[in-house]
Structure formats: C-alpha cells, structure tokens
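Review this fold:
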Amino acid sequence: MLNNIGLPGLVLVLLMVIILFGRGKISSAMGEVGQGLTAIRRGVKTGQGDDENPSA
C-alpha cells in the first residue's frame, strides 16, 4: 500500500505534519531526538569500555 506514495505524496504528508504541529513543536521534538541519540552514543561508547575489562 505504501509502495506507491512517491515524492508528491511525501511532500503532502510533510505539509500536513507542519500544519498540524507547527514549526516550533517539530523543531523542539527534533532537538530532543538529537539529545537522545547523543546520550545513546555516549552510553554505547562507555559500555564498550566496560566489556573489555570485566570485573567478575
């Protein structure tokens, strides 16, 4: 069903999201997503160091 959306359909969906939520809410949500991804990367990076030297 979603295989035939194409570029015009994606643009229409993007416009509807912007109209419904507004630019402010979307930008703040994307900022929170970015902070979450950064936290995950830091956690994975520190977690890899813990696996190299097991204390058990």
